[in-house]
Structures are given as C-alpha cells and as structure tokens.
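--- STAGE predict ---
source: upstream dedup step, 1 unique chain passed
mode: sequence only
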Amino acid sequence: MSFQELWQSALQEPENCDFSELREAYVESEEYNPYGRRGAAANEMSRLIKSGSYKEAISMIERALESSPLDLELQMMAYDCYRKIGDRKKMYRTDSFLRGYIDTLMSTGDGKSRETAFRVVSMREEYALVSLMQMKVERQALLQDDDRSFDQFHCMSLDDGKSVTLYFDVTQMLNWSDSKFKL
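--- STAGE serialize ---
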C-alpha cells in the first residue's frame, strides 16, 4: 500500500492503522521531508488559536498537514481545536490517531542510550516526544556511531527540574538529507 493510501486510511480509521508501516511508507514516499514545511504558518495558526478563531486555525492546520502529514504538533493542535468547537467525531478520531502514533513511536526505544534510542523519522517527532515527556531541551549534540547518527538531547524535567539525557536515532533523516543534497 502506498503512503497516501495508508495515510487516508489512518485518518478515517486510526484504530486500525499500523503506525509502524505508515511511518516507514512515509520515509519511502515522495512526500517525505524530515524537517517539515510549516514556516510562518505556524505563528499564524498559534495566533488564531490564542484568539479563539478555532475554525480558521483548523483550516490552516489541515492544509499544513497535507505537506507535513505526520506532524504530531499539528495533530495535537487539531485535537485541541476540535475539542474547543465541540466536533466530537473529529476530536475522538484525532485522539485515536495520536494515541496510536505516539504508542508506536514510544515503542521504538526508551531513549536512555544510543542502543535504546527512540527511532525517529522527523525532527518534529523528537520535539513532540520531549514535550509529551514534560521536558525542555537545554542543549543538543549530533553523535556518530559507525553508520548510525544520534541526536543527544540534554533536557530538564518540567516536573522536578532534574537533568535527563535522551537519545534519538536520526539516521534515516540524515540519509534523506545526504541523498537529497548529494552529500
């Protein structure tokens, strides 16, 4: 099944989606861009949400998802807007999508070492996980280990202020960059 077919299926019936297959199909697709494409639109979406213009924000979010379909932050923004306007059907469907996607992402590792690094396919996945874990990135480094690449995030827990180091396997992202820019 193509990425677009899997994506449409995931939007309609997220409870039946194999999110591992969806993420892999995304990496292999023409749509793949591990760094996202939101740009200035992100500020406008946030402004609309803060001003209570949820329907306008949803329209922008849905358009942005067309070019960054697996952007967890956009999905979370959509969920919040659907909840605030009372669109229960889309809210529950988005919630189901987020739960399945996040569970799949969390199952790729525990992030405590290079050996157990979270395997991410986009930069947005890294920051979404950090946010979901109630942490703030203080600094980061790119590490090489033979043929693997890792982002090492030094974070602070927003709950108790403790320092935490998280590892993300970013090999697929860097391979894409290398092939895209012929490095």
